[in-house]
Write a structure and sequence with these properties.
Chain lengths: 392, 238, 296
């Protein structure tokens, strides 16, 4: 699939704004056009097709994420951008030039490796200066550029240390500084926070966004962590088996997934299988014998009786002891399980015919006042526009 | 695994005693004034003096040193190349034969290696001397070098080389600036191993030396066999 | 291009100086001895063209092998070499394994030192180390002096110039070759495996047999081959420590070559030795390749 900006622009109006969507829209306004299209590449290893005729565009100065489970081909795609793998078919355009035949050392593309790949025999300073020296840059300019990078990544006092003498977080910043030093047109980051613990990871994500904005470099990040992709990227491409299933802003990926795969991969969701019947400005979904159908408002087109999936996020499902008034989607069920996560609680509610639906509430009150417990009979409800209707 | 029990401590003590006692005894008795190995007659360095005045021994030592330096240097280059082939080159025609020719010399009885090389040198009409010993020593020690270096290369993080390429190195520069400095300890260890193997070799050198060149082990061998001036044969630890 | 060069240089070197020499040995084993330089016939006369090659080939025969099979000296030498190699490999394993095990269980900061101590003997002359055993094992040697002084024996034991001395010599010289691969295998082992085995009901000793030994198998196999194969062809140790009754094929080959100057017979001896060793060598190479692939 080839992503075209603007095609879904009007549909994003009512969506919850996230940081990523915000930045992306700013990008659209500033007219940041397509800079680096990848018009259909394929990569095969023997019989195995790692990347299957994949097309996507990366925009100038954006923060683009390739997100997917391990083995989905995202790393292969990144290695093709860096030049360590040659596409079996197709081309990669960078500033209008096909870079597929260019070896990695002549590409204006730099990579931050998952293992950081810091040269153990060189100091932090020498690591950062390594690429600049290869360009035969003058001494003064190298000194200035390395100093600038050290300042940007707050590593000034570690310049003369060796990689094994600094902490994991500092090593990560050295790797970033080293790959940024040559001011690449495209910076590739392979699971850049994979080796950091959860607390440090969150802090680093914000730093990374900050550095991306300061330097104005185009970042492409590969990650299997959806939260990380949603946090840092202005656009996320969800990959599965060598294909991009959906590429969009984090908000649209979350609120308007185009497939069950994306809905299921990003965040939590309950999928209800059924058949669609047109009704008013949406569809009634019949999903079980002897129960009233659910209703969803959508402008997608389905045939009468077409198989479909209804995806509903748990935070959009209200849970109450009394039957709520004025909603079309109201269900009765019994609490099967409660996952208490501190800020929120997730309830697994079993409907009479066995289907289990997830509902989430924010724990605004202290634990002692929690209104529901195991085996309670409760009412679930959601608005007409809360669920997403997906093709089967 | 991480418990040093009395059993482990005993086996270590006995094991190292077994390895080192003969050497300690020999070193002590090399300072013995008596000509008899087994009788102590006071401290003396006369055997070292005798050794240093023996021109034939000094000549042999010089030949041995030259052979060892040259052969271990060539062997290090060839062995490192062979290690790169083993670990990096992937599949190619004759790969099994290649790895067979790397591992077989490690265990091949020296009499066979020596005899076969001698027959080769005679077959192609090469005069035996320092040059032929160097060829012979290079051949077997390059295999040791390649085993030492390839075990280091096997654990080498390839992304370091990729990072170098990514930052603008040509493949040759990446090898020189990144790979080589990192595997250097293994390469040096390989050189030292090749050097000591060459210094120490008797059998292969005996076959390939010919009358014009005598190495120290050959010289020591003949004096042990003749049973003369036994302790003057003590060579310094190499 | 670069890759081809990288492969070709060591490949051609080994072909020319390792493989081709064996073919020459094989060829000469089919020739006859002669009082000439070189001391064998026929010699290949390429200037005579095809006729020369044909004549050369018809003159080759298996006469030397027939000779080897009729003289029982050779058979006995092969068999006794095998026996000595097997016994000394077994002893080396029994002595080496506990040392390797002890090294692997020593505290981390001792290990480089212990490793150094195992390697250090390589850095002293092999001949001199064997020679020092002559001083220890001889009838008036240190061992006998010690035993008499302790009152354990009344008269000196004859150890030097017997097979016992050869066993001691081989075990002593080849011990590091046994220790190093076993230590390498044991050191890589995860200590929690033993705790898991004990947790699941093994005693220390069953845990050793069921976990430690199988996991150090590659090291044991490598160590045994590194001792066994060269020991069969050993020449220096039986010559210095063994007696006139110690028969080893390396010594026989040496004597055929240097004392009798019978190159074709020496070559035939080498060819048969090689045939005996080819299976262990292939097994050794497989084992090495397997453990290296496991590492990668």
């Amino acid at each position: 699939m080839l992503f075209r900006p603007g095609a879904h622009a009007d549909r994003s109006r009512q969506q919850r704004d996230t940081h990523g969507a915000d930045r992306f829209r700013a990008l659209e306004r500033s007219g940041g056009g397509t800079a680096h299209p990848v018009p259909g590449v394929t990569k095969r290893f023997g019989d195995f097709t790692a990347i299957d005729n994949l097309s996507f565009d990366i925009y100038e100065k954006e923060f683009f994420a390739l997100l997917g489970p391990s083995g989905c081909g995202k790393t292969t795609m990144m290695r093709m951008l860096a030049g360590f793998e040659a596409p079996s078919e197709g081309s990669i355009l960078l500033g209008g030039q096909d870079i597929a035949p260019i070896p990695p050392n002549r590409r204006p593309v730099n990579m931050m490796f998952q293992s950081y790949a810091l040269f153990p025999h060189l100091s932090v300073w020498e690591n950062i200066a390594f690429g600049l020296k290869r360009d035969r840059m003058e001494k003064d300019r190298i000194n200035a550029r390395v100093a600038e990078m050290l300042k940007l990544t707050r590593l000034e006092q570690f310049a003369s240390r060796k990689p094994h003498q600094i902490s994991g977080g500092q090593r990560q910043r050295v790797a970033l500084a080293r790959s940024l030093a040559k001011a690449p047109k495209l910076l590739l980051l392979d699971e850049p926070m994979g080796a950091l613990d959860a607390k440090l990871r969150q802090k680093t994500q914000f730093e990374l966004m900050d550095i991306q904005e300061k330097t104005g470099t185009t970042f492409v990040i590969v990650t299997h962590d959806q939260e990380e992709a949603m946090t840092v990227a202005s656009r996320v491409a969800v990959m599965d088996q060598g294909r991009i299933v959906q590429a969009d802003t984090p908000a649209r990926i979350y609120e308007q997934p185009n497939s069950v795969y994306v809905a299921d991969f990003i965040g939590e969701v309950t999928i209800i299988d059924g058949t669609a019947n047109p009704e008013g400005d949406g569809y009634e979904i019949a999903y079980a014998e002897g129960v009233p159908p659910l209703f969803v408002a959508t402008d997608k087109k389905f045939a009468r009786g077409q198989a479909c999936h209804l995806a509903i996020r748990p935070e959009k499902v209200a849970i109450s002891a009394e039957r709520p008034e004025g909603r079309r989607n109201v269900l009765r069920g019994r609490i099967l399980d409660i996952a208490y996560l501190g800020n929120i609680s997730t309830y697994l509610v079993e409907l009479p015919h066995g289907k289990v639906i997830k509902a989430q509430t924010a724990n605004t009150r202290r634990l002692a006042h929690r209104p529901f417990t195991w085996e309670d009979e409760v009412w679930l409800s959601w608005s007409d526009t809360a669920a997403v209707l997906l093709e089967g | 695994m991480r418990r040093l029990t009395w059993f482990n401590a005993t086996s270590l003590t006995l094991g190292f005693a077994f390895l080192y006692l003969p050497m300690v005894i020999l070193i002590i008795y090399s300072f013995n004034a008596s000509k008899l190995v087994t009788v102590w007659a006071g401290f003396s360095t006369r055997w070292y003096g005798t050794l240093l005045q023996n021109q034939a021994f000094l000549d042999a030592a010089w030949v041995t040193l030259r052979v060892a330096v040259v052969s271990s240097t060539i062997a290090t280059v060839l062995g490192t190349m062979a290690a790169l082939v083993l670990v990096r080159a992937g599949r190619f025609v004759g790969r099994t034969l290649f790895s067979g020719m790397i591992y077989a010399p490690l265990v091949m009885p020296e009499v066979i290696t020596g005899l076969s090389l001698l027959l080769l040198f005679i077959g192609i009409g090469l005069d035996r001397g320092v040059f032929t010993i160097i060829l012979a020593h290079t051949t077997f020690s390059m295999c040791y070098v390649s085993v030492v270096v390839s075990s280091r290369l096997a654990t080498f993080d390839r992304s370091l080389e990729e990072a170098a390429l990514d930052l603008g190195c040509s493949p040759a520069e990446a090898f020189r600036l990144v790979t080589l400095p990192i595997i250097a300890p293994a390469v040096i260890a390989g050189w030292l191993l090749a050097f000591t193997l060459s210094l120490d070799d008797l059998v292969i050198a005996s076959f390939t030396a010919g009358p014009s060149a005598t190495t120290l082990p050959i010289k020591i061998w003949s004096s042990i066999r003749l049973g003369s001036a036994p302790r003057s044969t003590r060579s310094p630890p190499s | 291009m670069r890759r081809a060069l990288l492969i070709l240089v060591p490949y051609l070197w080994l072909l020319a100086l390792f493989l081709i020499p064996f073919l020459i040995v094989f060829k000469i084993s089919l020739s006859d001895g002669a009082l000439a330089i070189p001391p064998y016939t026929p010699t290949l006369d390429l200037s005579a063209g095809w006729e020369g090659i044909r004549e050369f080939l018809t003159d080759l025969d298996f006469e030397n092998f027939v000779f080897l099979s009729t003289d029982d000296l050779y058979w006995k030498a092969y068999l006794s070499s095998l026996q000595i190699a097997v016994i000394s490999t077994a002893i080396t394993l029994l002595v080496g394994y506990p040392i390797a095990y002890g090294m692997a269980s020593a505290p981390d900061h001792w290990r480089p030192t212990l490793m150094m101590l195992v390697i250090l003997p390589f850095w002293t002359s092999f001949l001199i180390r064997v020679y020092s055993w002559m001083g220890i094992l001889s009838t008036e040697g240190y061992l006998n002096q010690l035993l008499i002084w302790l009152g354990l024996i009344s008269g000196p034991l004859t150890i030097l110039n017997t097979n016992t001395a050869v066993y001691i010599g081989i075990v002593y010289t080849y011990l590091p070759f046994m220790i190093l691969p076993i230590y390498a295998a044991l050191e890589r082992m995860d200590g929690s495996l033993l705790e898991a085995a004990e947790d699941l009901g093994c005693s220390r000793i069953t845990a050793f047999w069921l976990v430690t030994v199988p996991l150090s198998r590659n090291g044991i196999v490598a160590g045994c081959f590194l001792v066994f194969i060269p020991a069969i062809g050993e020449f220096v140790i039986p010559s210095l420590l063994g007696g006139s009754r110690t028969l080893m094929i390396g010594k026989v080959l040496w004597e055929e070559f240097f004392n009798n100057r019978d190159w074709p017979v020496a070559s035939a001896v080498a060819v048969i030795l090689l045939l005996i060793l080819i299976v262990p060598i292939i097994l050794f190479q497989r084992n090495e390749q397997k453990s290296r692939e496991a590492e990668e």
